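Human: Here is a favour to ask of a fellow structure person. Comparing notes only helps if you start from a blank page. Give me a protein, with the fold worked out from its sequence. Please set it down just below, with no commentary around it:

Assistant:
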Amino acid sequence: MSDRSITPTVHPLVKYLSQLWLIPRREYLRRFRLGRTVLEKVADNDIVVLPQVFNPVIFRTGEYFATMLQKAELPTMPAVGEEAPMALDLGTGTGVLAIVAARRGFRVDAVDLNPEAVRCVRINVALNSLDSQVNVHQGNLFEPVAGTKYDLITFSPPSFRGEPTSNLDLSWRSIDVFERFAMALPSALKLEGVAMVLQTSHGDEVGLLAALDSAGLQVEILARKHFGVEILTVYGASHPRD
């Protein structure tokens, strides 16, 4: 049984009150920063966002996850002279999580299905002078890095079920991404490793947790924050410990 509380829900009154300020702010941001190339500051890193790539600031999830990862307790870091641990950032988007992991001492593989995201990550890796620590791959989930095992895996999956209609929509919708991710995760995760997976209360949180349970993984809540209209949770998935 997974170590977690019931999936969170937002009280309708809290949601309504939060929308009074959120809707005008979101519309302003979308008008001036969505659908165009912009420069954002996320977890102390300069991040270029291309028009067909998920913006981690406007949609909040990426910024929250990056800030959490920047401060989180991570798998044991190596002593001086030892090889750096390996991290994998799936659905990397702008690459901000890969960049944060690299700054924390990991060698990172960053993977995205969206070719515009791959181009965006390469720009951001170069902008932050991390070319020697981050390798960028285009492909579907674990396919480009098959056979590699990781100390840390980060993933902010599409939250909603459905067929994506554009490159940008790959960040929002997938038919079966939770199940495919969970099925492949145990073989990609080292015995003492951890996978950090972000999900919003707006999405299919129950489906994500059911998929991780079915894969035989131990699940716990690593971080959770209430934003009024939604609750964001970072779940930690790991191999069961006897």
In short: The longest helix spans residues 12-33.
